[in-house]
Structures are given as structure tokens and as C-alpha cells.
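Pasting as-is:
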Amino acid sequence: MDVPTTRTSTAGHGVNVQVVTDPGGRLLWVSPALPGRAHDMTAARPHRIIRIFERQGMPIVADLAYQGGGPWVTPGIKRGPLQELTLTEKTVNRALAAARAPVERGVACLKSWRIFRGSRWRPNRMTSIAKPSSPWSGNAGEAH
């Protein structure tokens, strides 16, 4: 089964866009934009991304900002204060990073689009621009 990956893209400096891709980095869904100051988990909650994939029985590979996202989210292992990761933990993180590499390339490509670079538009305006870039532009909340 393909494991979806979530990624936050700060398109421009003022918005936080949640992105769901397939393991190859192909865009499956782009969220409505939220202000850039929104934390990734805060941005993911209103779109119910984690809950939807949990209902479908599909695990999520995500970046470290999704720590505490629940049993369906694999965000990698964060180093504690004044601690080092063990060799096993470093190996796990490298494997997750390798799995996420195509996703990161896809997000980097989105960020390189001139329309997103240096954008100072309101989140609602950025949402109307980002939505057509998603082949499935439905609302995540509707995918029960």
C-alpha cells in the first residue's frame, strides 16, 4: 500500500499550506492556506488530514513538526535537550528522510514557482492560486 506523506509548504513567507503527496512526490491534495505563523500541527488539524488517513488505515510519513500527531503519523525521532540520537535512531531518521526525498523535491518545485516566491498575499488569495495546482482539489474534510 502506498503511504501518503504530508508536508508543510510555506509558499512565500506569509502562508502555511499543507500538502499530501504519494510516495513518489506527486501532489494529491493542497490545503487552503493559513497564516504562515500557524504551527504545522495546528494547520493540519482543521483539515482533519490525520483523522482521514487514520480512518482509511493509511499511515502518514511526516516531518518533525508532526511530533505527537498520533499512532498513524511517523515523523522521525527528535533529539532531546542535551542528548544525542542513538545509532538506531539516526538510521531510522535517514530511512524516513530517504522516503520523504521525492516529496521534498516536489514541495521545492512548488516553492520555486514565481507566483509563490515572495508572495505577500492574504491566505485566502493564496488558496485560490494554489488549489488548481492539485490534481484532486477536493476538500480533505469531504474524503470520508
